[in-house]
Design goal:
Blueprint (H helix, E strand, L loop, with lengths): L1 H23 L3 H23 L2 H18 L9 H20 L21 H12 L2 H12 L4 H8 L3 H23 L5 H5 L1
Helix pairs in contact: 1-2, 2-3, 2-4, 3-4, 4-7, 5-8, 6-8, 7-8
């Protein structure tokens, strides 16, 4: 099973590399295809970093424009997806810094219009816990768990050592565990406290 998944991942990367080469040659159809393959994942990634629907929507387009402009400069030191998410990370961090989104309370942020009816209560807790983490830890969790990057790929995206990624993940897991434990405890009602 693992070898089958590795062969799928390998063929996907080869497909993305071929698209990137066509994009470098000015093929707009290749850019459209790559855009469609990455749009949803990029949007989720950027939204989790910026917590703004409108900024995430705008950034996805900016990221793909950068891919268009820099496709010829891709050296192949990483997977295409790692390169693209590295661009996304840097663009999102620039925007977050510029707009100081980290200091805004969650209630003031634009939320995307989507159906949460399929989400479980635990998923909601994890999502809320994610926003309680420091930005670097939140980013690491998003890259590793939500996007499936390895620690090495995450280190490339965030431009930090692999050991730093591991440390951030350790602290993020511990903090999320504490937050989930606190969320799972039933609150005593006023009647129960009076008894």
């Amino acid at each position: 099973m693992k070898k089958h998944l590795e062969s799928i991942a390998c063929s996907d990367d080869e497909d993305h590399l071929a698209l990137l080469e066509r994009i470098a040659d000015g093929d707009m159809a290749a850019l459209t295809r790559l855009y469609l393959q990455y749009h949803a994942r990029l949007f989720k990634f950027v939204f989790r970093l910026t917590r703004s629907y409108s900024i995430a929507d705008e950034l996805v387009n900016d990221i793909m424009l950068i891919v268009w402009d820099r496709a010829g400069s891709f050296r192949g030191d990483s997977k295409v997806s790692t390169w693209i998410f590295g661009i996304a990370y840097r663009q999102a961090m620039r925007r977050v810094t510029a707009k100081r989104l980290q200091s805004l309370p969650l209630s003031e942020l634009n939320e995307p219009a989507h159906d949460d009816s399929g989400k479980s209560e635990v998923e909601d807790w994890v999502e809320q816990g994610l926003y309680e983490l420091p930005a670097a830890q939140r980013l690491t969790v998003i890259l590793v768990f939500y996007l499936g990057l390895t620690y090495e790929e995450t280190a490339l995206v965030t431009e930090c050592p692999v050991n730093t990624v591991k440390t951030r993940m350790f602290h993020a897991r511990r903090k999320l565990k504490e937050l989930l434990s606190a969320s799972a405890k039933p609150e005593k009602t006023a009647e129960a406290r009076d008894d």
